[in-house]
TrEMBL record:
<feature type="domain" description="Fumarylacetoacetase-like C-terminal">
    <location>
        <begin position="62"/>
        <end position="257"/>
    </location>
</feature>
<protein>
    <submittedName>
        <fullName>Fumarylacetoacetate hydrolase family protein</fullName>
        <ecNumber>3.7.-.-</ecNumber>
    </submittedName>
</protein>
<dbReference type="InterPro" id="IPR018833">
    <property type="entry name" value="Rv2993c-like_N"/>
</dbReference>
<feature type="domain" description="Rv2993c-like N-terminal">
    <location>
        <begin position="1"/>
        <end position="57"/>
    </location>
</feature>
<dbReference type="GO" id="GO:0016787">
    <property type="term" value="F:hydrolase activity"/>
</dbReference>
<dbReference type="InterPro" id="IPR011234">
    <property type="entry name" value="Fumarylacetoacetase-like_C"/>
</dbReference>
<keyword id="KW-0479">Metal-binding</keyword>
<keyword id="KW-0378">Hydrolase</keyword>
<dbReference type="Pfam" id="PF10370">
    <property type="entry name" value="Rv2993c-like_N"/>
</dbReference>
<dbReference type="Pfam" id="PF01557">
    <property type="entry name" value="FAA_hydrolase"/>
</dbReference>
<dbReference type="InterPro" id="IPR036663">
    <property type="entry name" value="Fumarylacetoacetase_C_sf"/>
</dbReference>
Amino acid sequence: MRIARFSIDGTVGFGVVEGEPTDEDGLVLDIIKGHPFAEFERSGHRVPLKAVRLLPPVLPSKVVAIGRNYAAHARELGNEVPDTPVTFFKPSTSVIGDGDAIRYPSISREVHHEAELAVVIGRMCRDVPRERARDVILGYTCANDITARDVQEREKQWARAKGFDTSCPLGPWIETDVDPADLAIMCTVNGEQRQLGRTSEMVRTVEDLIVHITESMTLLPQDVILTGTPAGVGPLHAGDEVAVSIEGIGTLTNKVVKA
Protein backbone atom coordinates (compact mmCIF):
# COMPACT_ATOMS: atom_id res chain seq x y z
CA MET A 1 0.00 0.00 0.00
CA ARG A 2 1.25 3.47 -0.90
CA ILE A 3 0.17 6.16 1.58
CA ALA A 4 0.57 9.82 0.68
CA ARG A 5 0.05 12.99 2.65
CA PHE A 6 -1.47 15.75 0.57
CA SER A 7 -3.06 19.18 0.42
CA ILE A 8 -6.05 20.13 -1.73
CA ASP A 9 -8.18 23.28 -1.49
CA GLY A 10 -6.66 24.09 1.90
CA THR A 11 -7.35 20.65 3.35
CA VAL A 12 -4.51 18.38 4.49
CA GLY A 13 -5.00 14.65 4.77
CA PHE A 14 -3.76 11.18 3.93
CA GLY A 15 -4.76 8.93 1.09
CA VAL A 16 -3.94 5.62 -0.56
CA VAL A 17 -2.29 5.97 -3.97
CA GLU A 18 -3.75 3.62 -6.56
CA GLY A 19 -2.32 2.79 -9.97
CA GLU A 20 1.11 2.14 -11.42
CA PRO A 21 3.84 4.66 -10.46
CA THR A 22 5.08 4.63 -14.06
CA ASP A 23 1.70 5.98 -15.21
CA GLU A 24 1.64 9.40 -13.54
CA ASP A 25 -1.54 10.49 -15.31
CA GLY A 26 -3.34 7.37 -14.14
CA LEU A 27 -2.52 7.63 -10.43
CA VAL A 28 -5.52 8.19 -8.17
CA LEU A 29 -5.68 9.11 -4.48
CA ASP A 30 -8.34 7.43 -2.33
CA ILE A 31 -8.69 9.77 0.65
CA ILE A 32 -8.76 7.94 3.98
CA LYS A 33 -10.73 8.66 7.13
CA GLY A 34 -8.34 9.38 9.98
CA HIS A 35 -4.62 8.77 9.68
CA PRO A 36 -2.42 5.77 8.89
CA PHE A 37 -0.93 5.48 12.39
CA ALA A 38 -4.08 3.74 13.61
CA GLU A 39 -6.83 1.71 11.98
CA PHE A 40 -8.41 3.67 9.15
CA GLU A 41 -11.02 3.36 6.44
CA ARG A 42 -10.90 4.40 2.82
CA SER A 43 -13.51 7.04 2.13
CA GLY A 44 -14.09 6.05 -1.48
CA HIS A 45 -13.58 9.70 -2.41
CA ARG A 46 -11.00 9.48 -5.20
CA VAL A 47 -9.16 12.34 -6.86
CA PRO A 48 -6.42 12.33 -9.50
CA LEU A 49 -3.05 12.47 -7.79
CA LYS A 50 -1.94 15.27 -10.10
CA ALA A 51 -4.83 17.39 -8.75
CA VAL A 52 -3.31 17.52 -5.25
CA ARG A 53 -0.08 18.84 -3.83
CA LEU A 54 2.02 16.09 -2.28
CA LEU A 55 3.40 17.04 1.14
CA PRO A 56 6.17 15.37 3.11
CA PRO A 57 4.65 11.97 3.87
CA VAL A 58 5.08 12.51 7.61
CA LEU A 59 5.82 15.28 10.12
CA PRO A 60 8.46 13.61 12.30
CA SER A 61 9.32 14.76 15.80
CA LYS A 62 12.86 13.76 14.85
CA VAL A 63 14.83 12.30 11.98
CA VAL A 64 17.49 9.90 13.26
CA ALA A 65 20.16 9.46 10.60
CA ILE A 66 22.98 6.95 10.29
CA GLY A 67 26.35 7.82 8.78
CA ARG A 68 28.87 5.53 7.05
CA ASN A 69 26.50 2.59 6.78
CA TYR A 70 27.76 1.65 3.29
CA ALA A 71 31.44 0.67 3.26
CA ALA A 72 32.11 2.08 -0.22
CA HIS A 73 30.70 5.47 0.77
CA ALA A 74 32.80 5.55 3.94
CA ARG A 75 35.90 4.83 1.84
CA GLU A 76 35.13 7.47 -0.80
CA LEU A 77 35.28 10.15 1.90
CA GLY A 78 38.42 8.67 3.46
CA ASN A 79 36.70 7.08 6.45
CA GLU A 80 36.61 3.63 7.99
CA VAL A 81 33.42 1.78 8.79
CA PRO A 82 32.82 2.55 12.47
CA ASP A 83 32.52 -0.13 15.16
CA THR A 84 29.14 1.28 16.16
CA PRO A 85 26.69 3.25 14.01
CA VAL A 86 27.38 6.95 13.58
CA THR A 87 24.10 8.53 14.67
CA PHE A 88 22.99 12.12 14.18
CA PHE A 89 19.78 14.14 13.96
CA LYS A 90 18.13 16.23 11.31
CA PRO A 91 15.51 18.60 12.74
CA SER A 92 11.87 18.55 11.72
CA THR A 93 12.40 21.94 10.06
CA SER A 94 14.74 20.30 7.54
CA VAL A 95 11.94 18.12 6.11
CA ILE A 96 10.41 18.92 2.71
CA GLY A 97 8.37 16.86 0.26
CA ASP A 98 8.45 15.74 -3.34
CA GLY A 99 8.63 18.71 -5.68
CA ASP A 100 9.66 21.17 -2.97
CA ALA A 101 12.78 23.28 -3.46
CA ILE A 102 16.12 22.54 -1.81
CA ARG A 103 17.44 25.98 -0.87
CA TYR A 104 21.20 26.21 -1.21
CA PRO A 105 22.36 27.42 2.22
CA SER A 106 24.36 30.64 2.47
CA ILE A 107 26.79 28.93 4.91
CA SER A 108 28.07 26.53 2.23
CA ARG A 109 29.72 26.40 -1.16
CA GLU A 110 29.70 22.61 -1.47
CA VAL A 111 26.34 20.90 -1.04
CA HIS A 112 26.09 17.18 -1.82
CA HIS A 113 23.26 14.73 -2.50
CA GLU A 114 22.96 11.48 -0.52
CA ALA A 115 20.25 9.04 -1.66
CA GLU A 116 18.87 6.97 1.21
CA LEU A 117 16.17 4.51 2.22
CA ALA A 118 14.04 6.06 4.96
CA VAL A 119 12.17 4.02 7.56
CA VAL A 120 8.88 5.48 8.86
CA ILE A 121 7.99 4.47 12.41
CA GLY A 122 4.37 3.48 12.98
CA ARG A 123 4.10 3.17 16.75
CA MET A 124 5.79 4.44 19.89
CA CYS A 125 8.64 2.14 20.82
CA ARG A 126 11.63 1.76 23.14
CA ASP A 127 14.11 -1.09 23.67
CA VAL A 128 12.85 -2.97 20.63
CA PRO A 129 14.19 -6.55 20.35
CA ARG A 130 15.50 -7.46 16.93
CA GLU A 131 12.76 -10.01 16.26
CA ARG A 132 10.11 -7.30 16.82
CA ALA A 133 11.77 -4.53 14.83
CA ARG A 134 9.53 -4.92 11.75
CA ASP A 135 6.46 -4.58 14.00
CA VAL A 136 7.18 -0.91 14.75
CA ILE A 137 7.59 0.09 11.09
CA LEU A 138 4.75 1.62 9.11
CA GLY A 139 6.68 1.61 5.85
CA TYR A 140 9.47 3.08 3.79
CA THR A 141 10.08 6.13 1.64
CA CYS A 142 12.84 7.81 -0.35
CA ALA A 143 15.12 10.36 1.29
CA ASN A 144 17.93 12.69 0.32
CA ASP A 145 20.33 13.52 3.14
CA ILE A 146 21.44 16.85 1.69
CA THR A 147 24.81 17.76 3.21
CA ALA A 148 26.90 20.91 3.28
CA ARG A 149 30.13 18.97 2.88
CA ASP A 150 32.49 21.91 3.48
CA VAL A 151 30.67 22.82 6.69
CA GLN A 152 30.79 19.18 7.82
CA GLU A 153 34.55 19.07 7.31
CA ARG A 154 35.17 22.49 8.82
CA GLU A 155 33.03 22.14 11.95
CA LYS A 156 33.74 18.43 12.68
CA GLN A 157 30.19 17.92 13.88
CA TRP A 158 27.18 17.67 11.66
CA ALA A 159 24.35 19.70 13.13
CA ARG A 160 24.55 22.65 10.74
CA ALA A 161 25.98 20.69 7.82
CA LYS A 162 23.07 18.26 7.72
CA GLY A 163 20.33 20.12 9.60
CA PHE A 164 19.79 23.30 7.62
CA ASP A 165 16.32 24.11 6.31
CA THR A 166 15.25 21.94 3.31
CA SER A 167 18.10 19.45 3.86
CA CYS A 168 15.80 16.44 4.30
CA PRO A 169 13.56 15.76 1.29
CA LEU A 170 11.22 12.80 1.91
CA GLY A 171 8.68 11.17 -0.39
CA PRO A 172 6.81 10.88 -2.56
CA TRP A 173 4.79 8.51 -0.32
CA ILE A 174 5.14 5.69 2.21
CA GLU A 175 5.24 2.15 0.81
CA THR A 176 4.05 -0.35 3.43
CA ASP A 177 4.48 -3.57 1.45
CA VAL A 178 8.14 -3.82 0.53
CA ASP A 179 11.05 -5.81 1.96
CA PRO A 180 13.94 -3.39 2.60
CA ALA A 181 16.63 -6.09 2.59
CA ASP A 182 17.75 -5.82 -1.06
CA LEU A 183 16.36 -2.83 -2.98
CA ALA A 184 18.06 -0.91 -5.76
CA ILE A 185 18.69 2.73 -4.81
CA MET A 186 19.70 5.38 -7.34
CA CYS A 187 20.33 9.10 -7.49
CA THR A 188 20.32 11.18 -10.66
CA VAL A 189 21.16 14.83 -11.18
CA ASN A 190 19.64 16.43 -14.27
CA GLY A 191 18.95 12.92 -15.53
CA GLU A 192 22.55 11.73 -15.12
CA GLN A 193 23.14 8.79 -12.80
CA ARG A 194 25.33 9.67 -9.80
CA GLN A 195 24.63 6.91 -7.27
CA LEU A 196 23.60 3.29 -7.73
CA GLY A 197 23.62 0.68 -5.00
CA ARG A 198 21.51 -1.84 -3.15
CA THR A 199 20.24 -1.81 0.41
CA SER A 200 21.81 -5.26 0.84
CA GLU A 201 25.15 -3.40 0.90
CA MET A 202 24.29 -1.72 4.19
CA VAL A 203 26.72 -2.59 6.96
CA ARG A 204 23.86 -2.71 9.45
CA THR A 205 20.34 -3.70 8.53
CA VAL A 206 17.12 -1.84 9.26
CA GLU A 207 16.51 -4.19 12.19
CA ASP A 208 20.01 -3.56 13.56
CA LEU A 209 19.45 0.19 13.43
CA ILE A 210 16.09 0.08 15.19
CA VAL A 211 17.59 -2.00 18.01
CA HIS A 212 20.57 0.37 18.33
CA ILE A 213 18.52 3.57 18.30
CA THR A 214 15.80 2.42 20.69
CA GLU A 215 18.37 1.31 23.26
CA SER A 216 18.75 5.00 24.08
CA MET A 217 15.63 6.82 22.95
CA THR A 218 11.92 6.51 22.36
CA LEU A 219 10.74 6.64 18.77
CA LEU A 220 7.30 8.10 18.09
CA PRO A 221 4.83 7.54 15.25
CA GLN A 222 5.98 9.53 12.17
CA ASP A 223 9.63 9.52 13.29
CA VAL A 224 12.04 8.69 10.49
CA ILE A 225 15.30 6.74 10.34
CA LEU A 226 17.72 7.45 7.49
CA THR A 227 19.75 4.33 6.83
CA GLY A 228 22.85 5.70 5.09
CA THR A 229 23.88 6.33 1.50
CA PRO A 230 25.75 4.26 -1.10
CA ALA A 231 28.88 5.53 -2.84
CA GLY A 232 28.75 8.22 -5.48
CA VAL A 233 27.80 11.32 -3.50
CA GLY A 234 28.57 14.56 -5.27
CA PRO A 235 27.89 18.27 -5.63
CA LEU A 236 24.64 20.04 -6.35
CA HIS A 237 24.24 23.54 -7.78
CA ALA A 238 21.38 26.01 -8.06
CA GLY A 239 19.22 24.96 -10.98
CA ASP A 240 19.92 21.23 -10.65
CA GLU A 241 17.12 18.69 -10.44
CA VAL A 242 17.99 15.79 -8.16
CA ALA A 243 15.98 12.56 -8.00
CA VAL A 244 16.19 9.60 -5.62
CA SER A 245 14.61 6.37 -6.87
CA ILE A 246 14.20 3.21 -4.78
CA GLU A 247 12.98 -0.07 -6.20
CA GLY A 248 9.44 -0.88 -5.13
CA ILE A 249 8.86 2.57 -3.62
CA GLY A 250 9.07 5.36 -6.18
CA THR A 251 10.98 8.51 -7.05
CA LEU A 252 11.56 11.66 -5.00
CA THR A 253 12.41 14.71 -7.11
CA ASN A 254 13.52 18.18 -5.98
CA LYS A 255 15.05 21.24 -7.59
CA VAL A 256 17.93 23.18 -6.07
CA VAL A 257 17.46 26.94 -5.83
CA LYS A 258 19.43 29.83 -4.40
CA ALA A 259 18.59 30.56 -0.76
